[in-house]
Specification:
Layout (H helix, E strand, L loop, with lengths): L2 H20 L3 H15 L5 H12 L6 H15 L18 E7 L3 H12 L6 E7 L6 H9 L5 E5 L6 H12 L4 E6 L3 E2 L4 H11 L3 E12 L4 E5 L6 E2 L1 H6 L16 E3 H6 L10 H11 L1 E14 L10 H20 L5 H22 L4 H14 L4 H28 L1
Parallel strand pairs: 1-2, 1-4, 2-3, 6-10
Antiparallel strand pairs: 4-9, 5-10, 6-7, 6-9, 8-10
Length: 412
């Protein structure tokens, strides 16, 4: 029996043992198999494996070592050991990583996000929490749990300003690390070595603007975990990623929860002048400056729930988003030498995708549709007729529902 046959037999036996113990559903079995393969293939750490088993199947932590012993032994048997950096490095030799966390009325999630950063084995990190005037006791949590920790800075707004403003403010006042990670309060890291891996990757490839990785998607309503794999190359040229961003073969990382940006690139792309400091805009501007890196590991958890901003977009937010992308288009042409004709095509395509997503998922009234049509007609008339044609039936249904509701109320 050759090496690959030995590996397959051992894998099948261990997966069968886990399946007998955990009794997963068909959907969970597929993810379980993927996690086990990722662990054995060095695409998921032991942290990620233990997290998945504990979270998805409610396995008690004391039982995890026995349950995973066979997998750990198999990995050590078949894997080539990874080289490790010098153990005696001075703290001053590590570039600082600043982690900016925006939060609003999510103190339980926030606590988990902060703890996930403090557990990172990277020695030189600083967390900046900016609280957007929460009313749920976030300030008390921060004082009682992290008030004495020099690694955590707490900022609190006197009025609600929104996540974009807060990212910019926290970056301007305290984001002085050589590397920056923007973390939403409901997301968190699970691989304790991830920041170390990301900084090492930056050091090996100095032309990068950012490094990102894979995540678990956590569906809060069903408490189910799924692997979200970017499937990107280890290194992606900035022009290729920029021109094809969010198209087939060039997906956007889940939020920015695994994305370690080079601070120099953020400054060069004028982050402090941005009106819309959301993930897509930060990525696109960064790709005007440098290439992208990808580490094929499961590094964090992105929650999907009813309060995700991507599923509750306001009309004002969307128009601000489109205006920001128009600025990026102009930057690409005027400052970085991109072809004007190609960039106009790029912008039409990007605007169409953005508006379509909004009309499918968030638009609630005739006014929402009319505003989007007007914006398209004014700024990119090439997609105006296409949008009206595609969403004509959806708009008619909304109008009929409104009339039906009005008649029902009159009959009361």
């Amino acid at each position: 029996m050759n090496h690959s046959e030995d590996w397959q037999q051992a894998y099948d036996e261990l997966l069968d043992q886990l399946s007998d113990t955990l009794n997963p559903s068909a959907a969970d079995l597929e993810t379980l198999s993927g996690v086990v393969q990722a662990f054995l293939g060095d695409r998921a750490s032991e942290d990620a494996l233990l997290y998945y088993l504990s979270e998805q199947f409610n396995v008690e932590k004391k039982n995890l070592p026995d349950m995973t012993k066979g997998l750990v032994d198999m990995k050590s048997r078949f894997s080539v050991p990874k080289s490790k950096g010098p153990a005696g490095s001075l703290l001053s030799e590590f570039p600082k990583v600043s982690i900016i966390i925006t939060t609003y009325n999510r103190k339980e999630f926030l606590n988990q996000a902060i703890q996930s950063i403090l557990m990172q084995d990277y020695p030189r990190k600083e967390i900046i929490v900016i609280d957007d005037c929460s009313t749920d006791g976030t300030d008390i949590l921060m004082k009682e749990s992290f008030g004495g920790d020099s690694r955590v800075i707490y900022m609190r707004n006197e009025q609600n300003r929104g996540p974009g403003h807060n990212r910019r403010q926290a970056f301007a006042e305290h984001g002085d690390g050589e590397y920056i990670l923007f973390l939403d309060d409901d997301d968190y890291l699970i691989d304790r070595s991830y920041l170390s891996q990301a900084v090492d990757f930056h050091n090996l490839h100095p032309g990068l603007s950012f490094v990102a990785a894979n995540v678990f998607l956590k569906y809060s309503q069903t408490n189910q975990l799924k692997i979200s794999s970017l499937g990107l190359s280890e290194l992606i040229k900035k022009q290729d990623y920029f021109m094809n961003f969010e198209q087939k073969g060039y997906p956007k990382p889940a939020s920015t929860l695994t994305t370690v940006f080079k601070r120099e690139a953020l400054i060069q792309m004028n982050i402090l002048s941005m009106n819309m400091v959301n993930d897509a805009s930060i990525y696109l501007r960064s790709l005007l400056i440098g290439d992208a890196g990808f580490i094929d590991v499961i590094a964090g958890v992105y929650r999907i729930h009813g309060n995700n901003i991507t599923f509750n977009l306001s009309q004002g937010f969307l128009i601000e988003n489109l205006d920001e992308k128009m600025l990026i288009k102009n930057m690409a042409i005027e400052q970085y030498g991109y072809n004007a004709k190609e960039m106009n095509h790029w912008f039409n395509h990007t605007a169409y995708d953005t508006i379509s997503y909004y009309l499918k998922n968030s638009a609630k009234s005739y006014k929402d549709f009319a505003s989007m049509y007007l914006w398209a007609h004014t700024h990119c008339p090439g997609i105006y007729n296409q949008l009206k044609s595609e969403f004509r039936l959806k708009l008619i249904k909304k109008q009929l529902l409104r009339v039906s509701l009005f008649r029902t109320l009159l009959k009361r």
